[in-house]
Amino acid sequence: MLQKLKMNSTFIRILFITTIFIMIFSVNAFAGDKDKNDKDTGSGSTVVTTQSANQVATKAINSMKPILLSFGGVCVFAGVAMIGFKLIFAHNNPDKRISAMSGLLYIGIGAFMLGGCMMVAGFFWGLGQ
Q: Which residues cross the membrane (predicted)?
């Protein structure tokens, strides 16, 4: 029961941090750019204009995509590096080496799922355009 409670607590923390991360980095998607015809008042304030839902969605995806791609790449690289260190430290123990090599399978599956999610999201994004 305690293990399940710890797992739920960890999941809630990850969900909370991810939500905050998305909210922080997607703020600029909701502020419209100033039209070229608008005069600059010189007051230093940013002009916010109305936008269609399509413009907001496009801006949100374009602002989040490089961040999420970088995050996914760093996670895959960190996983492979950790497996490499496990293999180095377990060079004399065949059981630990087998365990470390099985971790490569999980990293490969995770990277494949990440790419698959991006492909499915791109497909649905293309349908909405």
A: 12-31, 67-91, 103-127
